[in-house]
Structures are given as C-alpha cells and as structure tokens.
Amino acid sequence: MKFRLESNRVEKLNIETLHTPDKQKENSLKMDYKLIFPDEDSHTFIIRFSYELSDAILYKISGESQFVFRTDEAINQDFRNSEYPYINAPAVAYPYLRSFISFITLNSGFAPAILPTLNFVEFGRTKISQLEK
Predict the structure, then answer these.
(1) b/e code 2-18 from CB counts within 10 Å (16+ = b)
(2) Would the pLDDT of 68 be above 70?
(3) What percent of the chain has pLDDT over 90?
(4) pTM for the whole thing?
(5) What is the rounded CA–CA span in Å between residue 91 and residue 119?
(6) Residues ≥6 apart with Cβ < 8 Å to 46
(7) How far apart are the C-alpha atoms of 119 and 71, rounded to whole Å?
(8) Element of type H or E holding 89
(9) How far is CA 121 from the centre of its chain?
C-alpha cells in the first residue's frame, strides 16, 4: 500500500515569553504523537503531534500539529498494526514540524529553534508494542 502526505495544519499553538527566566532550568523538549483512523474515510489516517519546547531563559512553546495522509487502498487492520503509520509516516511529517518550529521562533523574535532528529524506528516500535498489550 502506498501513502502520501495530503495536508498539514496547526491545531493549537501557544508561545509564551518568559519574563522571569529561570537560569537554573535546562532547555527541554517533550514530543509525542498519536494516530487517528477516521471512520468516515477508509483511505485516510492522521498523525497528531503534541509538543512542548522550552528555552529556559527566553520562551515556552506548546502546541499540536496534524498531518493528514492518504492511501491508495482502503486501510485494513494489517496496515493499522504495521510499521508504516507508526514509523514511516511520522518520519515523513516530522521535517515539516521541525521547519515550522524554526520558522515560528525566528519570526517571534528569537533565535530559530532547531528540533533534534528523532529515531522513529524506536519511537514507533514502542507505540506498536503498546498496542499489542
């Protein structure tokens, strides 16, 4: 089965300038994603990233971004449980999220934040193993 990224959209975004910086804290990134398989469209699945990025001195950004994928065949249970939606699709979507975060921080008056690369093989396999429990 083939799939392609059809669209992406920011669902929530909050940027907070820290007026009382805490130099004791370190920068942090919390990132997760979940898959959504809409009942009304058997050729679509959605990845929703949730993130919280904090520059301990300057800002805190949190939000959710949604990436819609379209398949060339109807999605079946085998595809839902495979590595494609849990590993390959997030790996396709993540560079767009990285670019967006860099862009939004730069255009908010901060140095651009560069999100680290993520190992979606390990991330996805953890999510798949949670499904099996």
Answers:
(1) ebeeeebeeeeeeeeee
(2) yes
(3) 62
(4) 0.88
(5) 8
(6) 35, 36, 37, 38, 66, 67, 68, 69
(7) 24
(8) helix 89-106
(9) 14
